[in-house]
Write a structure and sequence with these properties.
This protein is an alpha+beta fold. The protein has nine helices and twelve strands. An eight-stranded mixed β-sheet has the order 1-2-10-7-12-5-4-3. Strands 6-11-8-9 form a four-stranded antiparallel β-sheet, with no helix packed on it. Helix 2 packs across helix 6 and helix 3 (89-103) packs across helix 6. The longest helix is centred in the middle third of the chain and has 29 residues, at 159-187. Bound molecules: the ligand C=C1C[C@]23C[C@@]1(O)CC[C@H]2[C@@]12CCC[C@@](C)(C(=O)O1)[C@H]2[C@@H]3C(=O)O, 2-oxoglutaric acid and fe (ii) ion. The ligand C=C1C[C@]23C[C@@]1(O)CC[C@H]2[C@@]12CCC[C@@](C)(C(=O)O1)[C@H]2[C@@H]3C(=O)O binds next to strand 5, strand 12 and helix 8. Residues 231, 233, 238, 288, 302 line the site of fe (ii) ion.
């Protein structure tokens, strides 16, 4: 992932000065006020979760109907789980174990690799924390490009073996993300001929990506805590490995929060804001969050995949016409990350140039765009 400057640049203009309160979660018997969330009980939070019978589609990538299945899942859910994706279980185990080792280090050691306020990589609380008055019950570690610089601070003696695992994971995830992107585009009727992300001389440009390791310690009062608050990802798509502990929830319109149960070896794929823009709102980016539990800690590993740095993302030509005007203006990922850093869940609306003809507005203003 060579485009580290792109992603890092996006945040330089919007430094996040979080009053980084690093708790030793394991020693706490109750939740401090700083981490106590009052439960919002609106129509998006059904009080009896067991009434939810709908579930996120699980798609076998070797199924002959894979294109239709992916298209339907993206349109109706904005999220799916994939099996038969080709990522070896041993690699998933290795990256999980490396992440576990990282988060088990003493706090003082982890802080040696702390993310700087205007940086993108390193250890810290969730970036989106600055938009909330309460802190989240989690720790994170963001990696853009090579983890070497930060891993050397964590493990001066044996950082290379951890670097090797992460680099292998990034390489495999990039291949899968590319494959999934073409499947998603294929489901919209878009072929490689329709989409030129090559340079002026036909040279192919590298996509950009970030790896986000999330750790959610067990929590004495999970109903009053939040692992990772609701958000959409700014990506084209995100591939999430959530190991074997549940906690991920997605918002389904008309239903409420739906838990995405871990399936052995399965990977969750989220539609991100850039795919939302590219599809002119046809494939909505999914609002999601992570909740915590009383007995088990939880790990998740998100591969956040985006287009090459200089590529302007705008609604695909094939999807716009007299009855389907483009809903969003062209924007690069770098610019969009800046918009997100400033406006968070209102970022999509900031890029919108035209209300959908059916008159509805965006989820990121807590109302979903519904088109098509
Ligand atoms: C490329 C990126 C997307 C991300 C910001 C980042 O630079 C690296 C971390 C990503 C992440 C992961 C947790 C949720 C999220 C909203 C956040 O605060 O950091 C996403 C960002 C995003 O998708 O906007
Ligand atoms: O931990 C999870 O299940 C969600 C993580 C997530 O949404 C993210 O890293 O962007
Ligand atoms: Fe996310």
């Amino acid at each position: 992932m060579p485009s580290r400057s792109l992603l890092a640049d996006a945040f330089r203009a919007y430094p996040v000065h979080l009053h980084q309160k690093h708790l030793d979660f394991s020693s706490l018997q109750e939740i401090p006020d700083s981490h106590k969330w009052t439960q919002v009980d609106d129509e998006r939070h059904p009080s009896v979760e067991s009434f939810v019978t709908e579930s996120v589609p699980v798609i076998d990538l070797l199924d002959p109907n894979v294109l239709q299945n992916i298209g339907h899942a993206c349109k109706t859910w904005g999220v799916l789980q994939v099996t038969n994706h080709g990522i070896p279980i041993s690699l998933l185990d290795n990256v999980e174990s490396a992440s576990r080792t990282l988060f088990c280090l003493p706090t003082q050691q982890k802080l040696k690799a702390a993310r700087s306020p205007d940086g993108v990589s390193g250890y810290g609380v969730a970036r989106i924390s600055s938009f909330f008055s309460k802190l989240m019950w989690s720790e994170g570690f963001t990696i853009v490009g090579s983890p070497q610089e930060h891993f050397r601070q964590l493990w001066p003696q044996d950082y290379t073996k951890f670097c090797d695992v992460i680099e292998e994971y990034e390489k495999e995830m990039q291949k899968l993300a590319r494959r999934l992107t073409w499947l998603v585009l294929g489901s919209l009727g878009i072929t490689k001929k329709d989409l030129k992300w090559d340079g002026p001389k036909g040279e192919s440009k590298e996509s950009s990506a970030a790896l986000q390791l999330n750790y959610y310690p067990a929590c004495p009062d999970p109903d009053q805590a939040m692992g990772l608050a609701e958000h959409t990802d700014s990506t084209l798509l995100t591939i999430l490995y959530q190991s074997n502990t549940s906690g991920l929830q997605v918002l389904k319109e008309g239903t409420g929060w739906v838990t995405v149960p871990p399936i052995p070896g399965g990977l969750v794929v989220n539609v991100g804001d850039l795919l939302h823009i590219l599809s002119n709102g046809l494939y909505p980016s999914v609002l999601h969050r992570a909740v915590v539990n009383r007995t088990q800690h939880r790990l998740s590993i998100a591969y956040l995949y985006g287009p090459p740095s200089s590529v302007q993302i705008s609604p695909l030509q094939k999807l716009v016409g007299p009855n389907h005007p483009p809903l969003y203006r062209p924007i690069t990922w770098n610019e969009y990350l800046g918009t997100k850093a400033k406006h968070f869940n209102k970022a999509l609306s900031c890029v919108r140039i035209c209300a959908p003809l059916n008159g509805r507005v965006d989820v990121n203003d807590h109302n979903r765009v519904k088109v098509g």
